[in-house]
Amino acid sequence: MVADDRGWTTDIMKLWQSLMIALARSERVSRFMHRNAAAGALARRFVGGRDLAAAIETARDLQRRGVRVSLFYLGEYVSDPGIVQVTVAQKIAAIEALAQAGLDIHLSVDPTQIGYSIDPDLGRRNGLAIGKALARQASSSRNDRRDFLMLDMEDWTLVEATLQLREELAAAGVPVAQTLQAYLRRTAADLGPIIAAGGAVRLVKGAFVDRSERAFANRAGIDANYLALAERMLSAEARDAGFYPIFGTHDAGIAFDILALAKARGWPADAYEFEMLYGVRQELQQRLLTEGARLRLYLPFGEAWFPYAIRRVGESPRNIRLIFRALRS
């Protein structure tokens, strides 16, 4: 077994992530945690507000620090059509609130929260409705804003559907960005056409586990692929095409390697950005800001906080202490 950078073996880390994902998808565990007032500390650590108004206020505070946000209404793997309908309405309301606040109209969407778990065609229609709402607001935004509908990438079974939705949104004139995951072997092939089209990609390592023929089996392989993909995203070809790179990472070594590469290749600081999760690695956030990097935080809001928070714990076993601290308080 190969040890990752936190001293956990790869096999144990995969088991840990699988357990956390199972907890995230358990309706029974989620109901218990959402009703547990003591667990609110965990929600406050990772969630920017229980409602849209609170999230916008958090976003304003972050903007005063020079930090941009990507709003995300909580919920994933939704199988209830009523909840899907509420989610779509919340997404569109968030677009309007961001525009009114003068913030980047930057919204993240999980395909499974807008209908893909029920019917792919329902998810597609809802994705287009959200995208067109964003395009209407973005058309009147200031030139210094970066407005995007960011499509999150979920597990392997949704990769093709998500990429197809991105293509349809782009064809409809929606400013759309795509999350790609470095743990998947296919990502290099998926990245090429988006670079050539002058699109935008948020590159992440990925929080899922998969078979070795589809995914890199250890952290060293994932890290090496992440850096190889980052080099392509910061290539002269990408810059000439008008491509916009977004690097989603909490790995300080990788972040500063990318920063050095971008400077060496002449990329202006406003031509790419780093993205991190709200509540995670604040000291690294400040270091990037000090270096003059553009930083965006993924800012969730809403009541369904537990699946999101427990997946953050899955990404770092050290975060398990947050659960125990929350339940003891």
In a few lines, what is going on in this structure?
This protein is α/β, with parallel strands linked by helices. It is built from 14 helices and eight strands.
Describe the overall structure:
The chain is of the alpha/beta class and 329 residues long. The protein has one domain: TIM Barrel. It is built from 14 helices and eight strands. The protein has helices at 10-24, 27-35, 40-46, 52-64, 81-101, 120-138, 159-171, 187-196, 219-233, 236-241, 252-264, 282-290, 306-315, 320-328; strands at residues 68-73, 106-109, 148-151, 176-181, 200-204, 244-248, 273-277, 295-301. Strands 1-8-7-6-5-4-3-2 form an eight-stranded parallel sheet. Helix 4 (52-64) runs parallel beside helix 5 (81-101). The chain is globular, with a radius of gyration of 19 Å. The relative contact order is 0.16.
How many domains? The number is 1
Give the assembly state of these chains.
Answer: single chain
Quick one: how many beta strands? 8
Q: Identify the CATH architecture.
A: Alpha-Beta Barrel
Query: What is the overall number of helices?
Result: 14
Roughly how much helix do the residues carry, as a percent range?
Answer: 40-55%
